[in-house]
Specification:
With 271 residues, the chain is an alpha/beta fold. It contains eleven helices and nine strands. The protein has a nine-stranded mixed β-sheet, sandwiched between helices. Strand 6 and strand 7 form a beta hairpin. Helix 6 packs parallel to helix 7 and helix 9 packs across helix 10. The longest helix has 22 residues. Pfam families: HK.
Length: 271
């Protein structure tokens, strides 16, 4: 993969303005919607169970988030997921909080039996849970087990037959054959509660305009990461509030030359 692919994807998002259907938490909605608009996509946030299938069928990509607190919400995202599958629309699962409670653990695994997802974004612990390799309850975060994150991403991609986007201080993308690492990003993203929701939506935006979902995922991490690095540099010493505002600005202003200058990724290993 070359950086020119990232240029093309970013250009196409801004030209096509793909409709991205986001089924996310209320507290994540504002940043996700504003970030997508800045990038060039057209967001729809959540919706009723009665319109879930219709909205999903009209979208360029559908983003599902494991943050529901009741069975009705679970049925709504399942309905949207099935509609996306029926119409061949990229379906991105944001696994944020998948390991927080017994209900979420059970329902997230049940969801993966009902629908086929194009990509899953999560940290090492969330991904480990989804493949039942967390070796403990929701409160146990075994750093020893998740220390080899590249291998965990590769294993999860094979087990779940999907693209895994593992985020955190180290970032890996795997399709079960190849694994790439993206070095862009900033620690301040961890202080923005909706950052994972927005990144999942950026992955969906890239997938909406690029058939190669693996390259779309790598591109999304670079776009998100480079914008975050520039924003952090411009707001150095000002804290996460100013960073968040500048981050949205940089998603709008991001150029191909900045991707070339700051973008950093590499193939990590092959199976």
């Amino acid at each position: 993969m070359e950086k020119g692919k990232v240029h093309t994807i970013l250009k196409n998002i801004r030209q096509v303005n793909p409709l991205i259907y986001n089924m996310t938490a209320v507290h994540d909605a504002s940043l996700t919607a504003n970030g997508l608009l800045a990038l060039g996509a057209s967001p729809i946030i959540d919706g009723s169970v009665e319109e879930a299938a219709e909205l999903a069928s009209k979208a360029g990509a559908v983003i599902l988030t494991i943050n529901w607190s009741d069975r009705e919400s679970f049925e709504k995202i399942t309905t949207a997921g099935k509609a996306a599958n029926k119409h061949g629309i990229p379906l991105i699962l944001n696994a944020a909080g998948a390991n927080f409670s017994l209900f979420r653990r059970q329902q997230s695994q049940q969801l993966l039996k009902r629908i086929s997802v194009s990509a899953i974004r999560g940290d090492a612990f969330e991904i480990a849970h989804l493949i039942k390799e967390d070796r403990g309850d929701s409160g146990e975060r075994s750093e020893a087990f998740t220390s080899n994150k590249s291998q965990l991403a590769l294993l999860a991609a094979k087990k779940l037959s999907t693209i895994i986007v593992m985020t955190g201080r180290e970032q890996f993308i795997s399709d079960g054959i190849s694994t790439y690492t993206v070095h862009n990003g900033d620690a301040l993203l961890a202080k923005v509660s909706a950052a994972s929701s927005l990144l999942s939506a950026i992955i969906g935006s890239c997938a909406a305009v690029e058939e190669n979902l693996f390259e779309a995922a790598v591109s999304a991490l670079m776009i998100n990461g480079v914008a975050a690095e520039i924003a952090a540099n411009k707001t150095e010493g000002q804290g996460p509030g100013n960073f968040q505002i500048e981050f949205i600005d940089q998603l709008s202003l991001l150029s191909s030359s900045e991707i070339d200058l700051y973008g950093s990724f590499a193939q990590y290993e092959k199976a």
